[in-house]
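From the thread on structure requests for the teaching lab: each student submitted one protein with a one-line request. Submission from student K.M.:

"Model TIGR01212 family radical SAM protein from Candidatus Ornithomonoglobus merdipullorum, tokens only."
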Amino acid sequence: MDRFLYSDDNKRYHTWNYHLRHKFGCKVMKIALNAGFTCPNIDGTKGVGGCSYCSPSGSGDFAGDPQESIVRQFEEIKEKMHKKWSSGKYMPYFQAHTNTYAPAEVLRSRFECVLRQPGVIGLSIATRADCLGEDVLDYLSELNERTYLIVELGLQSVFDETGERINRCHTYADFLDGYRALTDRGINICVHLIDGLPGEDKAMMVHSAKTVGELRPHCVKLHLLHVLRGTRMERELEEGRLRLLERDEYVDIIVSQLEVLPPETVIQRLTGDGGRDSLIGPLWSLKKFEVLNAIDKELARSDTFQGAALR
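Reply posted by the TA:
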């Protein structure tokens, strides 16, 4: 094929790194933070125990220590990042739990302090689509006028039966309500999907990607389901009620999902893993670069690319 439009190298999909370098002209480091929020699926408002895959850290296993201030977390993780990259700008990422699950003034107290740090070019906020009250939407709209804002919505699957099985405690219709409330305000959205959820086959996973792609989100994250210690899924795996994907299966699914996603949509992530001490499986996910290389090789072997099925 001719070179993929949104690539400066051999990539056949629209990478996050490509997007940021072209937008800001330099390396941008995402700094994962923990603001100490909880979730309506944990505190009993909608459910208890959280989603069945969710760790005690609220999917923020690589975020900062919530016992420390936001600014202190930012500084510590920034220094770690600079061991890998000598220079660049920063995008604070409020990752753990549900980061709009509080009144707007509380959010303001968490977000503004880090936005003032030197080199910060934007803000990424992970949340649920059912935690976007009017006061929160008004504040996000204000932020969107002042900085490069992305709101990350955990959808995981468009199938409500899957949502019920993983104790998601909101529906696809709930997701669409939140999605539209954000897009009506011109706010960039990153949608999260998880591959390998219990009860789903490849056709369902590709359908989820295609359905999300039709919404034309700014970004998508495609995650591999991985099982961590201390989660409900750990028990499901032990009892034989859950089968984890093999690497070749996962690569095949990702390639098919990329084909049905619009080329303009930025792919922030193509895999996912847990901490080495907490991950139960699949253990092959720890070799992240090998997984990404396998995806690149399969795209090249098949002579396909992001959006190929939409032509």
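TA comment: Strands lie at 28-33, 89-94, 122-127, 148-156, 188-195, 219-224, 227-228, 266-269, 279-281. The CA atoms of residues 260 and 310 lie 6 Å apart.
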